[in-house]
Amino acid sequence: MDGVNDVRATVGARARSLYDAARTAWEVTRTAVAPVVRRAPEIVVGVGLVLSVLAVLVLVGAARNDAAISADQGTAVAEVLDGGDVGHTFIRFTASDGAVLTPDTGVLYPRGLEPGNYVIVEYDRSKPELVRVAGRSWTEGLGPVALGIVGLWVVLGPTAWALARRRKGRAEDGTTPRPDGDVTPDREPVGALR
Q1: What whole-number distance in Å separates Cα of residue 147 and Cα of residue 62?
Q2: Under DSSP, is residue 135 helix (H, G, I), strand (E, B) or coil?
Q3: CA geometry: angle at 48 spanning 46 and 53, to 5°?
Q4: Pairwise CA distance, residues 159 & 80, whole Å
Q5: Does the predicted TM-score (pTM) go above 0.70?
Q6: Which of 155, 149, 105, 148 is nearest to 128 (CA)?
Q7: CB 66: neighbour CB atoms within 10 A?
Q8: pLDDT, position 130
Q9: Is 73 helix (H, G, I), strand (E, B) or coil?
Q10: Angle at the Cα of 112 (from 108 to 115), degrees rounded to 5?
Q11: 69: part of which helix (H) or strand (E)?
């Protein structure tokens, strides 16, 4: 019977030790994350601004590509090839110098193209890897990018506002969250005994 009690005591001691270690790890994690949580509204707005700027930069890059194509433009008939994916639609065309080209990056503005179709493309003669479908330009992306940015701020704007309001409400209550999760008053309660 003493052996069973010794095993129980050992298991109980190890369980308490694991529990204490997990509790300590949780408290350390909460303490480390607390500054991030306090700045959550600013972080949400910062992420929104970064994503908005990246979306605008995509349009700027597309406009630069279009300008390069327009500066030294060649025109050809291209065949849409099999094997494309969501990000790339591959084509094969013959350049003005007689070279048969299949750009590695695919064609710009490929909406609506199916394998086996023939389409007129415009390309940069000095850099024939840069190809777009004729008659399409960077303005094709204005609508999707604008909708994406609006959708982003429809989600992030109220989220940041709610987080800021929650933080302000805590400040007005006179309570501050401690790293261990308890809320302590910042000032002495009204009517406290001295």
Answers
A1: 17
A2: coil
A3: 95
A4: 44
A5: no
A6: 105
A7: 20
A8: 92
A9: strand
A10: 90
A11: helix 40-71
Give pLDDT tens digits for 5-58: 777 888 888 888 899 999 999 888 888 877 877 888 999 999 999 999 999 999
**pLDDT for 184 beyond 80:** no
**Three-class SS of residue 132?**
strand
| Residue in the structure block whose two tokens are 């695919």 | 106
The dihedral through the CA atoms of 96, 133, 110, 55 has a sign that is: positive
Q: Which domains does the chain have, with CATH numbers?
A: 71-140 (2.40.50)
Please give the Cα distance from 23 to 31 (Å, whole number): 12
What letter represents residue 23's amino acid? R
Q: Which of 78, 82, 92 is nearest to 120 (CA)?
A: 78
Q: pLDDT, tens digit, for every residue of 57-92?
A: 999 999 999 999 999 999 999 999 987 776 788 999
What's the rounded Cα separation, in Å, for the pair 148 and 141? 10
User: What would the pLDDT profile of 130-159 be if each residue is shown by its tens digit?
Assistant: 999 998 999 988 999 999 999 999 999 999
